[in-house]
């Protein structure tokens, strides 16, 4: 009888943590479904690259996106680029696809706002993402910050700011904080730089400042336009 009572007591004590874990998992899937509810968009963007050893002027253009991972950047002047590592320009690919393991990380504070923290481990180990830490404004169901550990690009921190397109979970501004020695800078942003990838790697290793950032301002969105897969096919 005493043993049965202890088992029941242990189950009662364990129940809150199990419930919290389930809530964290549900929260992740709700957030991911909301983000992926936008099938495609065209956005007027302004991109600023802040890297100590590179002088790249701010650029304007149009960013075309189609779920889950198709992207095309058309710079002002008619030059089109298909980023081969496109997740570095959008939040969608920083949210691991498929089945995942979600760990409740409790709460944190961003800009004096209490946010829920979850840690997400992809169910498959074949992709680039190893672990994503996500800070969520639960009241508005918006992702305010992500910290993503990748296999090929080090750790990427992303801050998201919202205004006009909250209903679609589309940010007005995104800032990526990157470790320069690990990160492969997107070609669409650095094409004014005439050096090679190896030049960038060596300069990143030698630089006193090891961190940089990419800021993208989304000036206007046109949402769910019906973009086709063929639109993103690279022309030979």
Structural summary, described in words:
The protein has 236 residues and is of the alpha+beta class. The protein has a single domain (17-227), classed as outer membrane lipoprotein receptor (LolB), chain A (Clam), CATH 2.50.20. It has 3 helices and 11 strands. It has helices spanning 2-35, 187-190, 197-206; strands spanning 40-50, 59-66, 70-75, 79-81, 100-110, 113-122, 129-137, 142-150, 155-161, 173-179, 211-223. An 11-stranded antiparallel β-sheet has the order 4-3-2-1-11-10-9-8-7-6-5.
Topology at a glance:
Elements: H1 2-35, E1 40-50, E2 59-66, E3 70-75, E4 79-81, E5 100-110, E6 113-122, E7 129-137, E8 142-150, E9 155-161, E10 173-179, H2 187-190, H3 197-206, E11 211-223
Antiparallel strand pairs: 1-2, 1-11, 2-3, 3-4, 5-6, 6-7, 7-8, 8-9, 9-10, 10-11
